[in-house]
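Think of the structure tokens as a kind of shorthand, similar to the way a musician reads notation: each symbol stands for something richer, in this case the local conformation of the backbone. In the example below we present two proteins back to back. Begin with the first one, reading the sequence and then the tokens, and try to describe in your own words what changes along the chain.
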Amino acid sequence: MLASWLEVPSLRTLLDRYSAVTELDLAHLGTDADAETIKDTRVAQALLTAASLLSWHALTLDAGLPRPDAVAGHSVGELAASAVAGVLSDEQALLLVRERGLAMADAAATEPTGMTALVGGDPEEVTATLARLGLTAANVNGGGQVVAAGTRAQLDALSAAHPAKARVVPLEVAGAFHTEHMRPAVARVREMADSLSPADPTTALLSNADGAVVTSGEEALSRMVTQVANPVRWDLCCEQLLALGVTGVVELCPGGVLTRLARRTLPGVESVAIKRPGDLPAARELMTRHGGSR
């Protein structure tokens, strides 16, 4: 994930700073660590946030690049988005995400829970099936994709009797994130959030909760805390992007998932996913061409 970025001395220095804040060896985790190590939410959330911020700073080394008109992040990505929008500093975002990862991992350890993606199927049947089994639509991603979350027994029942024409994809995550199972984590994340001093966004920041444009730093931070135990409505974020007239999207590192989804949820919107430094010229070209086009 990070090997090619660390070939740039200034970015290596920046990552060392991030490592000191999170008390994690992010260079090792992003280069040499095995999959089992980095999928542990205790480290995964900090690593993902650091990768996003690292690629953002690499992208904006070109001082003439136009600012984005809006920023949004899916789940933990909302913390990196808040830093890009000026609500939190990089260090504040990393402190918050480190505590978030630890708190969510501890909450997940109390009971065997998980998440399963449902792709396709009749939306009403999907909703009815989840309600019948007591599952939560933890991520409503748009494009016919819903992520169900709950106990392992509930997810096993879903796999055994899933909605017709829906593809079932179990996810390798530690627990039922964005559900009531994460309630114990909220207080810990709020305590960390209360120690921070957010600023009002300098760029339109979209909230996972409902796609709303958040104009207050305090509100943005409060929403990020409650997000831990509440569903991510990425479908509403995409609707908001279209309503704002967005014509181009750049996904920060480790890019790919959201740009693939954007092909279904953001028709006619051009996109570039940043996975490695070689993707930066295409991202800059897109931002230059679409900047100010709204």
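Once you have a description of the first chain, move to the second and do the same.
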Amino acid sequence: MRTLLLSIVLLASTAPVFAQDAVVDIHVHLHKGEASVAEYRAQLKASGQSVDAFGAMWFGGPNQALAGNPADIRKRNDELIGLAAKNPDMIAIATVHPYDGDAALAEVDRVAARGVKLLKIHPHTQKFDAADPRVLTLVKRAGERGMIVVMDNAGIVPDDNEKLFNLALAAPKTKFIFGHMGGLGFRFWNILALARTAENLFADNIYFDISASVILAADSPIEAEYVWTIRNVGVDHVLIASDFPQISLPKTLDAFAKLDLTDEERAKICSGNARKLLGL
């Protein structure tokens, strides 16, 4: 009996220590509004997972926020803000289209005044060039209003990493979260370790969510490089995210658990960094 108890203790001490009860999922798409919130919660409950908070946006999938219809974008932003008011753990992520000019800037001002902290824009699905001057004007305005700009960074569009890096350099007072950490082009972002050494170049205003890319990297030949990149961009600048409904949070966390990270690094990425960045 004593031998059995000792074996159990030894097994417990060697098992991965990864408490998943403190999680902020920063990348959730609500394609069907309130029904999607219910689906997200049901998926978590089925896996025994919970979240402290989740950042949610209305657009993506069947819902597009294209140029030329700012009134519709405004209406949908309001619906999202209303949904967040019913769900205290939901963080509203509004959107605009950079090519809508003054209307887009006015919408940034309006949603910021309503307490929205995150603004998502997507070069690929919204069909704009991240190097367009109108994008720089928009992200600077968002930064002036205290908003963090979330942008897709899955390497879908040409020169994706380079354009986003230049955008962040040109808007040093705006904080950015780049989704997917470059996808399979994640290696590019190791340049940040050098950018930090250049005087008056980089404002350290780039953060990353690792949705999708963590699943490709975990338990693969590129896993060690991926972890190396997380540390080079700065563990304090990396956030867990699911990209629901395309990918579930439980699947994301399962992949994340395979990475060779310390418990302290895991805690920061799962919730600590998001709490600090968003003032939760």
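Compare your description with these statements about the second chain. The radius of gyration is 19 Å.
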